[in-house]
């Protein structure tokens, strides 16, 4: 029971990170119908940016609270600009091209990003000394402690706050309205005076900012990142988006939590060697049997 | 000429913005490098010269681009002068003759030992990628199904040979079709449930399956020996004659001096023959109803269904045939490498093969071959550029830039020439003008 409780806590933490990345996938898919394959690598890039900023500002000797906020804010801004440029360079011209063109371009972009980081920062693991090591002891068995660390509280809180803010943006602001309009019918939205290109660019910017938060939290939780780390978390977050129903924001978060829990529990009770297989199988099974996911709308093929 | 100063100032302004953007993008990631110091603690090393070089490059690039785009242009009425396509059938035969002569000429000119590298890396390796490219071209180029897990079928072929050869004692020639068949069977098994899916979903699921295959190969130690891989399998023989020194070998039998390059030359011809087979099969199939159905499916799936084509079966054949050639290539890969391990079948491998098809132009046989030569040849050339270490310091490894450039090339190709290097591919079937048809 204690083991289960501990894995539940770990799973929710991991799931929040996946959920944050999954929002980037689901929004972009909703608005331009494209699997943004490079999003996982944008997440990895943001973790590297956060790592470098952290090392850079640490030498300035700031208190850790200010330090965290500065690093988080800095990496959000820089990553957002990265994704803005990526959209401009790799996807914008392809809107009228054949169907698979944006996906192929995104695969190229993903390959470029992960190798760009390998080339500039080296292929090895980068690990930082653990931060925020305090834990709360929840229950105690004679051999097993169930702990909830400050980091995990921080991760779940930050995720929840951001989601609430983001939910507000999509539901209540003009930007959110424009986004939802483009999602339903981009051509009609353009006729009614919505700047579609600008809305899409902003979607990429927001997605990247959320991925940057995920990258920072990932670094905080695991303390280590390497240049190939974008691929597997990226696919898992995409799985989360699909599982929750692609195009649906609450679905993305729900899917993220589900994937995080399944992964940790599977690793605990079955085999940690095959824990990635569990996530990939879910992706395949969901797409084959339940392509609209848990909360998604059924996909109608237009002629 | 009055527009000139304003153009210059506009170029200057845009270039400054570009430089600023590069400055922000590159700020921590280019300006600093995190590396562990003596105590194994990460420390930052500043690289300001590199950083400012990139900013300057961004500035210069944007400046030139703006000037180029804004240059005064005289409008030319471009009449699409439809040039009749020149058919040059002798060109293909010339190419084949050159390919056959290549290893013999290299060996004769350089001697058997220096020729090893030329026959192996620039011969067998490139041809293997050509074979893989032509195989994937059936799935991606003809039928329009994006397969991101092609390396899985490649792996199935390679492992099938490495496992079955010692187990059954069968020769390479009898196992070659078996490898292909097993990979095709895999293709059908994976393909069958997912072919109902839309294009991009299908791509992601093939990727997921490929990763599952790779993880099973890594973790199923008893059979696959994990990361170490398999290496105790028989090598290629010349119809039963092994390529070994001594009286029982190939060289003694034909009265030649033993040279390691003979084995590679033989392997080269085997790969060449099979690659040409893949080429002939896909060119011939394109004219059959099945091939036409593939191309129709690529252009418009809904129309195909409305016309009563069985889309699931048509897709499945394309998938299986592509997988078949990957299996054959896998078998040959095992023979060339002498060792088969999961690290050879990562997503990077799938991406490289996909890049070959995409750069070559989906559907074009010439283009794919050209792209394979370019990508493999260029990455080998990058490895030779060690003198750049003197310019950029000892940390600089040109070979690392291979995938980076491949990725960039894919993005650029989709943006500027989405139909590939050789983009003038004739449709296989064309409607004749009314007058001609009436005759």
Automatic annotation (TrEMBL), chain A:
Protein's UniProt keywords contain Ion transport: no
Keyword Cell inner membrane (UniProt): yes
UniProt membrane topology term: Multi-pass membrane protein
Keyword vocabulary terms for this entry: Amino-acid transport, Cell inner membrane, Cell membrane, Membrane, Transmembrane, Transmembrane helix, Transport
Ranges that cross the membrane: 12-35, 42-60, 66-86, 98-117, 152-170, 200-220, 240-265, 277-296
Signal peptide: none
Superkingdom in the source lineage: Bacteria
Location in or out of the cell: Cell membrane
Major place of residence: membrane
Family, similarity comment: Belongs to the binding-protein-dependent transport system permease family. LivHM subfamily.
Protein name per its UniProtKB record: Branched-chain amino acid ABC transporter permease LivH
UniProtKB/TrEMBL annotation, chain B:
Pfam families: BPD_transp_2, DUF3382
Membrane topology, record value: Multi-pass membrane protein
UniProt KW keywords: Cell membrane, Membrane, Transmembrane, Transmembrane helix
Keyword Mitochondrion applies: no
TM segment ranges: 12-30, 50-69, 90-110, 122-143, 150-169, 175-194, 201-220, 265-285, 316-335, 366-387
Subcellular location: Cell membrane
Main localization (coarse): membrane
InterPro entries linked to this entry: ABC_transp_permease (IPR001851), LivHM_N (IPR021807), LivM-like (IPR043428)
Identification of the protein by name: High-affinity branched-chain amino acid ABC transporter permease LivM
Organism the protein comes from: Candidatus Rhodoblastus alkanivorans
Gene symbol of the encoding locus: livM
């Amino acid at each position: 029971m204690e083991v289960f409780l501990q894995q539940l806590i770990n799973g929710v933490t991991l799931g929040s990170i996946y959920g944050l990345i999954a929002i980037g996938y689901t929004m972009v898919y909703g608005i331009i119908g494209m699997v943004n394959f490079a999003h996982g690598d944008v997440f990895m890039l943001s973790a590297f940016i956060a790592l470098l900023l952290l090392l850079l500002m640490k030498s300035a000797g700031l208190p850790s609270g200010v330090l965290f906020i500065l690093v988080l804010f800095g990496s959000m801004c820089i990553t957002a600009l990265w994704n803005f440029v990526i959209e401009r360079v790799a996807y914008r011209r392809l809107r009228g091209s054949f169907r698979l063109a944006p996906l192929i371009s995104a695969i190229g972009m993903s390959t470029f990003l992960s190798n760009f980081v390998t080339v500039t920062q080296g292929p090895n693991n980068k690990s930082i000394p653990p931060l925020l090591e305090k834990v709360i002891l929840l229950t105690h068995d004679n051999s097993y402690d169930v702990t909830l660390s400050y980091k995990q509280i921080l991760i779940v809180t930050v995720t929840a706050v951001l989601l609430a803010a983001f939910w507000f943006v999509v539901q209540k602001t003009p930007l959110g309205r424009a986004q939802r309009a483009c999602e339903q019918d981009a051509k009609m939205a353009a006729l009614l005076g919505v700047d579609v290109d600008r809305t899409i660019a902003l979607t990429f910017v927001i997605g990247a900012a959320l991925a940057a938060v995920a990258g920072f939290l990932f670094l905080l939780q695991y303390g280590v990142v390497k240049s190939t780390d974008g691929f597997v978390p990226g696919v898992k977050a995409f799985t989360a988006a699909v599982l929750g129903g692609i195009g649906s924001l609450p679905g993305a978060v729900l899917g993220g939590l589900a994937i995080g829990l399944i992964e940790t529990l599977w690793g605990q009770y079955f085999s940690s060697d095959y824990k990635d297989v569990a996530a990939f199988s879910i992706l395949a099974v969901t797409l084959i049997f339940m392509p609209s996911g848990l909360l998604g709308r059924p996909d109608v093929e237009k002629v | 000429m009055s527009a000139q100063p304003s153009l210059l100032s506009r170029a200057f302004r845009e270039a400054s913005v570009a430089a600023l953007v590069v400055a922000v993008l590159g700020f921590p990631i280019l300006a600093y490098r995190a590396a562990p110091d003596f105590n194994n603690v990460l420390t930052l090393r500043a690289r300001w010269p590199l950083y400012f070089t990139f900013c300057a490059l961004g500035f210069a690039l944007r400046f030139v681009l703006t000037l180029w785009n804004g240059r005064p242009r005289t409008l030319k009425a471009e009449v699409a002068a439809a040039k009749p396509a020149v058919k040059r059938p002798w060109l293909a035969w010339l190419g084949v003759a050159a390919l056959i002569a290549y290893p013999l000429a290299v060996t004769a000119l350089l001697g058997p030992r220096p020729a090893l590298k030329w026959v192996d890396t620039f011969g067998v390796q490139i041809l293997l990628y050509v074979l893989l490219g032509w195989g994937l071209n059936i799935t991606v180029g003809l039928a329009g199904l994006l397969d991101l897990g092609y390396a899985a079928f490649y792996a199935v072929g390679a492992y099938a040979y490495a496992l079955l050869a010692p187990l059954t004692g069968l020769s390479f020639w009898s196992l070659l079709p078996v490898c292909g068949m097993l990979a095709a069977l895999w293709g059908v098994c994976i393909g069958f449930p997912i072919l109902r899916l839309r294009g991009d979903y299908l791509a992601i699921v093939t990727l997921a399956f490929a990763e599952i295959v790779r993880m099973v190969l890594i973790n199923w130690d008893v059979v696959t020996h994990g990361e170490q891989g398999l290496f105790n399998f028989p090598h290629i023989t010349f119809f039963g004659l092994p390529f070994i020194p001594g009286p029982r070998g190939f060289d003694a039998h034909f009265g030649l001096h033993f040279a390691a390059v003979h084995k590679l030359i033989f392997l080269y011809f085997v790969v060449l023959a099979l690659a040409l087979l893949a080429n002939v099969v896909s060119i011939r199939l394109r004219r059959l109803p099945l091939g036409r159905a593939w191309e129709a499916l690529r252009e418009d799936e809904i129309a195909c269904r409305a016309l009563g084509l069985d889309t699931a079966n048509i897709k499945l054949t394309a998938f299986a045939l592509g997988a078949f050639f990957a299996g054959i290539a896998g078998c040959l890969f095992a023979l060339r490498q002498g060792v088969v391990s999961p690290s050879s079948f990562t997503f990077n491998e799938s991406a490289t093969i996909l890049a070959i098809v995409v750069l070559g132009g989906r559907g074009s046989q010439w283009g794919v071959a050209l792209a394979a030569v370019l990508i493999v040849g260029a990455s080998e050339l990058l490895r030779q550029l060690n003198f750049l270490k003197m310019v950029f310091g000892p940390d600089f490894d040109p070979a690392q830039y291979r995938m980076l450039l491949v990725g960039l090339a894919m993005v650029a190709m989709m943006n500027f020439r989405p139909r590939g290097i050789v983009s003038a591919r004739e449709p296989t079937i064309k409607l004749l003008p009314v007058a001609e048809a009436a005759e």
